[in-house]
Amino acid sequence: MTKALYRDAYLRDCTATVTGINERGGVVLDQSVFYPTGGGQPGDTGVLEWEGGQTAIALAVKGEAPGEVVHVPAEGASPPPVGASVTARLDWETRHRHMRVHTALHLLSVVIPLPVTGGSISAAKGRLDFDMPEAPQDKDALEARLNELIAADYPVSDEWITDQDLAANPGLVKTMAVQPPMGQGRVRLVRIGLGDDTIDLQPCGGTHVRSTAEIGPVRFGKIEKKGRQNRRVSILID
Predict the structure, then answer these.
(1) Rounded to whole angstroms, what are the CA distances from 110 to 9, 124, 197, 224?
(2) Which of 57, 87, 138, 207 is deepest in the core (most CB within 10 A)?
(3) Strand, coil or helix: what is 5?
């Protein structure tokens, strides 16, 4: 199991020990700041540095063992040796953009309070698919409302509940097709707002900014029809 230092979304680097190299050359560390691909958010990129060497990491993904993070070297790059002490360093600019987009998508699910059927995140834009038979008539009003929530500078925090608590509160889950991972005994929630002023609370394992104002202004992209019941809503960040 890789200790998930990426839970501290603002930690940009760490020291770690190489505990294994898988059959595809992926590097497993005892702890990592690299977020592995999941929940629509891309895995982190960056570099591993050690005495006498350096390897560019093209992607971090989940390994076969529970909680394992595999750091996939760029094509042609050699991994560090097992047992080596390395510094794992993120491509911070890209990670931070993922954080901004991810938090903005949580707010989008507030502005459009419909069941979510899918979603994805990139460094420039994100999208959610909604169970929405008809396209919204006033896209400009939705965009204005989203930017209003962003500018309100709500705090963003996380907390944990048990699997049983989540099962007793199914309304916390907004996604229809993908359920939050359970079976580990607890589930992470991301809260936007504070106390009675909470505007969103939902299960999420991804990385987020500390406050909504950090997202910055966003623009709506296309609203596309994706099947009889689905509409895809895209947003772009500056």
Answers:
(1) 23, 21, 13, 19
(2) 57
(3) helix
Cβ distance 129 to 178 under 8 Å? no
Show the domain range for 187. 95-237
The whole-angstrom separation of Cα 230 and Cα 224 is 8
Task: Give the HSE-up count for residue 19: Cα atoms under 13 Å, Cβ half-sphere.
Answer: 15
Q: How far apart are CA 91 and CA 184, in angstroms?
A: 30
Claim: this prediction has a pTM higher than 0.90: yes
Return the half-sphere exposure (C-beta side, CA atoms, 13 A cut-off) of residue 238.
6
Read out DSSP for 176-237?
SS-PPP-SSSEEEEEEES-GGG--EEEE--S---SBGGGG--EEEEEEEE-SSSEEEEEEEE
Give the chain's domain count.
2
| End-of-domain residue from the set 46, 66, 90 | 90
Quick one: pLDDT at residue 178? 67
Amino acid at 72: V
Q: C-alpha angle 219/113/6, rounded to 5°?
A: 70
> In the prediction, which pLDDT does 227 show?
85
Shared domain for 123 and 86, answered yes or no, is: no
Q: Are 72 and 58 in contact (CB under 8 A)?
A: yes
Which CATH number do you get for residue 193?
A: 3.30.980.10
Task: Report whether pLDDT(179) > 80.
Answer: no
| Tokens, residue 14 | 């760490």
Torsion of CA 214, 217, 223, 224, to 10 degrees: -60
Residue 18 and residue 80 in contact, taking contact as beta carbons nearer than 8 Å: yes
